[in-house]
Amino acid sequence: MRFSRQPIVVQRGQRKNKPHILFKLFMVIGTGLIIGFGANIIISSEMNIRKSFVRDNPVLSALDKLHRPALIDYEDEQGFTEEPDFVEIEKGEIPETLHTTEGTVQRGDSLYSILAAQGLSPLEIHGITTQLDGLFSTRSFRAGQKYSVARDDEGNFRRFTYHQSRSITLHVEWDVVSEEFHVSKEVQDYDTRTSNLTGIITSNLANELQRNGRYGLITQLENVLSWRIDFNRDIQPGSQYRIIFEEKWLNDQYVGVGNILATEITIRNNTYTAYRYQDPQGVVGYYDEKGDSMQRFFLNRPVNYSRVSSPYGYRVHPVYGTRHFHGGVDLVAPTGTPVYAVADGQVIFRGRKGPAGNMITLSHANGYHTQYLHLSRYAVNYGSRVRQGDIIGYVGATGVATGPHLDFRVIRNGRLQDPMQALASSSAAQSVASEHRNDFLAKRGMLRAQLDELDIQLASAER
Question: Among residues 159, 187, 215, which one ends one of the domains?
Fold first, then answer.
């Protein structure tokens, strides 16, 4: 069967059976605009009416504050809903209020009896003594020694401090975030000795240092060489390392590692060498053979993190589900992970800051400020001067947070910067000043001779 198309003839004065498609489209768009405009007027009127009722009714006002995050744009930890034109840097300290009482160890007292008298359970005391193993001997707990106990405003135990000697102080501290006790020993006077390590990596560098009981060197090595070496990707089994460093000793007791004086790592025939040098003005840095800096103005990261959970810029808040501006970058890491100063600077703010939780602000050269939010604990005091790579606190989840992480922020001349871009684009630190070059070369020569001696030892061990 065949079909033929017949033309449709429209005579003058007749209408088509169907409206033109453009006419339909205009009708739909126009209707949508009218509905949207009307809805906007209704919503605005409703919001204004609700606000007037809320202002006049104390009960509604309380409920409005309670549910406000679900009704309006949520402010980020620093109070931003949109990218600000200028950021005011707050200075000062918001210290936690603790009430301290002092006492003296009496004959017959023990660490157990004193802690039990402060309300700690036998299980808690057992956990503390387990941490003390190798750090403190109970035989050092002697009558006549001073101690202090700190409690918060509610009378809860927060810290026990025992002064073992003029140079050694023992701290037992309750962390309200992790709900755990932390034990630490503070040593004021110690001897500094020079030591060295050399070897061939069989798995990774961290395991090598751990096996030699000097794991504390890994952070310094990463800070010194991180702009030249990717420690997770580049260092493979077979790589060689040589490290000359300081150790801290108290009589015959090892306390910890000090500064790295020189290091050299060889990876697939590529050698990376760094020397520590302090000029006559007290400026400290790490330099290569020519005196060029191995470091940059910023470290490449403020914490060893596993992933970025929230980037800088506009985002949907993980707790409230609202879209707003985020002035930092969230770096996920376990509670207690050390947080490092990304550059030399000074602590100009330390304290609890609402949704930001425990926060530290550092002031740096060139108009920079960096901020570290949601900390579980502090490692520096207000007003302290810090060097690049110093531990200033520990990762936590204080304030408003879904889990432990560091909210890291960079501000320059009052304007927020993308933190990851600021770190990545960091300029190289200054090389050794020309007037100190001969002094540097002389000290570098002595360290070079020591590294060469380690090369001989390593070659003998390989035979």
Answer: 187
Q: pLDDT tens digit string along 61-85? A: 554 444 444 334 456 677 676 777 7
Which among 390, 359, 379 has a CA at the least distance from the CA of 186? 379
Residues near 371 by Cβ (< 8 Å), separated by ≥ 6? 78, 328, 359, 360, 361, 362, 407, 408, 409, 411
State the DSSP string of 155-186. Answer: --EEEEEEE-SSSEEEEEEEETTTTEEEEEEE
Q: How far apart are CA 360 and CA 401, in angstroms?
A: 17
Q: Could you give the strand order of the β-sheet that contains 146-151, starting from the edge strand earlier in sequence?
A: 99-104, 146-151, 157-163, 168-175, 180-187
Instruction: Clarify whether residues 133 and 220 are in a common domain.
Output: no
- The string of pLDDT tens digits covering residues 141-169 is 888 899 999 988 878 888 999 988 767 88
Q: What is the pLDDT of residues 419-435, one digit of tens each?
A: 999 998 887 778 899 99
Q: Which of 187, 217, 235 is the last residue of a domain?
A: 187
Whether residue 348 is found in the same domain as residue 420: yes
Q: At what angle do helices 58-71 and 21-56 cross, to 10 degrees?
A: 140
Quick one: 291 and 440 in the same domain?
yes
Q: How many CB atoms lie within 10 A of CB 13?
A: 5
- Count: domains in the chain: 3
This prediction's pTM: 0.58
Q: What is the pLDDT of residues 237-286, one digit of tens each?
A: 999 999 999 998 877 878 789 999 999 999 988 999 999 999 998 888 99
CA–CA distance, 235 with 197 (Å, rounded to integer) = 17
Residue 359 belongs to a domain with what CATH number?
A: 2.70.70.10
The residue segments making up the domain with residue 255 are 191-295+433-462
Residue type (1 letter), 100: T
